[in-house]
Amino acid sequence: MAESSLIIIHNMLVHFMSLELVDGYPNLLVNYGSGTTRLNNSVIEVADGKPHLIEIVLMRSSIEMFVDRCKLSTCMSLAAPTGPREILNVNGPLQLGGASIDLQNLARSFGWKHVPTNTNFMGCISNFTYNDFMYNLGRPSVDHNADPGCQKSVFTAVTFGIDTNFLVAILVCIAILISIVGAAPDISGFLDDKKSVLDRDPDINPYDDVRHYAYEGDGNTSGSLSSLASCTDDEDLKFNYLSTFGPRFRKLADMYGDSDEDRPPHEESWC
C-alpha cells in the first residue's frame, strides 16, 4: 500500500471532502463551502498491510475522525468547520482510489487552501458505508484498474454516482454521517397542502373552520354546543327526561327540564 495516496474524494467543487494517506496516517480535508478544515491522525498507522476501520462524522458544529474505534483523546481527531457554513453540499461524484482530474488545477479554480494528493491509492477497500447504507461496490459508473475481488490488491481511480451501486474493494470502512437540513424545518407549506386536500375531499364537510366546530350539530340544536347555553331561546330544546335522573340531577332538571306541573305524580328517583 502506498504510504501517501488519495483514498476518497467527494464533490470536487467549493464543497468537498477527501480522505488520503500522508506518510501512512489518515488525513481528512472537509470544506463546507467557507474554508477547508484539516484533520489528521498521527498515532495509528494504517499503511501496515492490516485491515483498519476509519469513521468520519460530519455535523453542523464539528468534524470527527476515528481510527479503529479508538475514542481516546490521543487517537481521535476533532475540529470545527471553517467559516459560517454548517453543511456539506454533496451533489457531485464520489471517487474511490484517486481522482479522475488534476486536483491542483481544481484547487486554483476554487481557492482551496489545502489540496488533496493526486497520487492514486494502491490497496484494498471494502465495506464502504455511507449514511448507514453499505454499498456492494459492484458496478461503478467508471472504473480503471480495479479488481472487485481484491485479488490484485492494486487499483487507481474509481468514479461512481452517489445513487448507484459501486465497485471497488476496501481496506477502510468509511461511515459518513452528513446533516442535510440546515435549520428547523418549515412545515407551513406542508400543512397548507394537507388542509387544501381535506377541503376538496367530497366525503367530508366542506368547511374546516371555527364556525363548524362551534356548531357541530350541523343544524340540529339538540346536538349542538349551543344547547349548553342556559339563555337559549330555541323552542326545540327538550330536556324533560332529566327529571327521571333523580335528585342528583335536580338542579339541571330545574334549569332545563319540565316544570313541577308537568312531572308525573309518582315519579321514581335514583339513589
TrEMBL record:
The keyword Transmembrane helix applies. It holds the Pfam family Laminin_G_2. One of its GO terms (molecular function) is calcium ion binding. Residues 1-150 form the Laminin G domain. One of its GO terms (cellular component) is membrane. Keywords: Membrane, Signal, Transmembrane, Transmembrane helix. Residues 1-24 form the signal peptide. One of its GO terms (biological process) is animal organ morphogenesis. It comes from the Eukaryota. The chain crosses the membrane at residues 166-185. Cadherins are calcium-dependent cell adhesion proteins. This is Jg23210 protein. It comes from Pararge aegeria aegeria. The lineage of its organism: Eukaryota, Metazoa, Ecdysozoa, Arthropoda, Hexapoda.
